[in-house]
Design brief:
1 helix; 0% strand; 52 residues; mainly alpha
């Protein structure tokens, strides 16, 4: 088995940039959408139970 090559320096800033973009997409964009959809579902379920 041969030794692995060292990771080039320019991969590290690229990795952190991709990680930062993924965090922003998930926490800033997708989480509020998910919370909004869950609250709409909760309101719809509450209204459906109240009708019966």
């Amino acid at each position: 088995m041969s030794a692995k090559r060292p990771i080039p320096f320019y991969y590290w800033p690229l990795w952190w940039l991709v990680l930062l973009v993924a965090d922003v997409i998930f926490y800033v964009l997708l989480t509020p959408i998910w919370i909004g959809l869950r609250s709409l579902a909760w309101v719809a379920e509450f209204r459906a139970r109240r009708r019966n």
